[in-house]
Amino acid sequence: MKPRRICIVGTGLIGGSFAIKLRQKGIASRIIGVDNNVEHQRQALDLKIVDEIMDLDDAVKHSDLIAVTTPVDTMIDLMPSLLDQIDRQVVMDMGSTKGRLVEAISKHPKRGRFVATHPMWGTEHSGPGAAVDQGAFKNKSAVICNAFESDADAISLVKWVYKRIGMRLLEIEALEHDLHVAYVSHISHITSFALANTVLEKEKEEKTIFDLASGGFESTVRLAKSTSTMWVPIFAQNRDNILDVLNEHITQLRKFKSCLEKENYGYLIELIENANRIRKILK
Amino acid sequence: MKPRRICIVGTGLIGGSFAIKLRQKGIASRIIGVDNNVEHQRQALDLKIVDEIMDLDDAVKHSDLIAVTTPVDTMIDLMPSLLDQIDRQVVMDMGSTKGRLVEAISKHPKRGRFVATHPMWGTEHSGPGAAVDQGAFKNKSAVICNAFESDADAISLVKWVYKRIGMRLLEIEALEHDLHVAYVSHISHITSFALANTVLEKEKEEKTIFDLASGGFESTVRLAKSTSTMWVPIFAQNRDNILDVLNEHITQLRKFKSCLEKENYGYLIELIENANRIRKILK
What we know:
2 copies of one chain form a homodimer.
Chain A: E1 4-9, H1 13-24, E2 28-34, H2 38-46, E3 52-53, H3 56-61, E4 65-68, H4 72-85, E5 90-93, H5 99-104, E6 114-119, E7 141-145, H6 152-164, E8 168-172, H7 174-202, H8 206-212, H9 215-221, H10 228-237, H11 239-262, H12 265-275, H13 278-281
Parallel strand pairs in A: 1-2, 1-4, 2-3, 4-5, 5-6, 7-8
Antiparallel strand pairs in A: 6-7
Helix pairs in contact in A: 7-11, 11-12
């Protein structure tokens, strides 16, 4: 396929990294940035992540593909009116929840032009300055939800883009997506935020945390650097699934607590060996 | 200082990686491996991690420095009789708990020859095959506990070794060490084991975990690959501190749960912004 004029709505970590890849892989002939944060607009231009900044209305007119990477609450507010404005363009989102979004536009006359996606990649950083080339998207799954509601040419374009940036394609129904990501993504953020709060509560000496933190601690707590702007809307939209897995997680932690309290090290070994099964699933 | 004959007791991840660094930095003239696992003995020789394998008694006689990197329960069984056998050699341990160990040998006539240490580095892998050069130990803290109980020359030697492999030195009293590592290391392992068990319980489709796992999930769950052989003795020895921090962690998780149940997103933002303070502590 030939290069396209692509508009990135939200020039932060995901939108910015996506823009870098689009340019690098020759997918975009021109990249237009849309962002309501003036500082992010400036950074996105300075870092040459986008070619120009436009208002959303103008950007839509001048683009073939519009990728929306805003927080998921903004996406629901934005998407119906965005679809109102398009003609034959393709619109995709790259958000972490899908159920509410596809529901919000399910009856829209331009629903076919929209492709619901979730690339399973990100870091704990945010803003255009966090956008990276190295390691972004590659070899991770790009989930496409409710493909049956999208026009065939729109799906083809989005799949072509994701394949070109090295992603593995996966199709899942939107509500099923939300269930699974509660397990393999959203709960990790909650545990990481809670772990940071635990350590900040117990360890009043910040210097001691800095001095003693090993790679293991940094690894389990790094997601706690993620912003509330991005994550509170995700938690709100996927509330029921997350509550379900969070309850299970507290139950699992209580088992460890009970083992320690009762000095039941035989069962503690069992719990750890069960957890070790994750080895064969993740590399 | 001149290179030494160094004995590594336990040729796994820590002992093996330490041996690789000792050789690379010209710290050791000869490296003797001691391991009660015959397969590990063979691997340590095949991978040229050690020059030869000996029984502990022989190895002690032929070494200037003995580094013990076994699980922490073995260490307590082993250390008194090991100290019985030494003359002017220096013995160091590299374990994750310190209180019980220094207590177990506090009255030993050779206590001065022993240096209690904890290098704040490791990975989730184990055995000689997991030993690595890249990134091992460097720029992490090497904690020395109860230095006042060790002979000056023994402390000097151990500090010289840790400095040569790029570590930052830190002196902490043993019980204080155990308290702090419960916060910044041991709890991370418990949360990671429990998170793996949560996901394995909720997500019966292992392929879905594999397909959807992002870097974030892998990061929070990777410590769950750690072995029970290494970690159950650590949890047992540091039980009271870990129970204390685990209770706090469950309390913190309940706050997230309550926010979601009550849809109190204002407080959820506060919890996340508090967790974000970890940003300025960790890089």
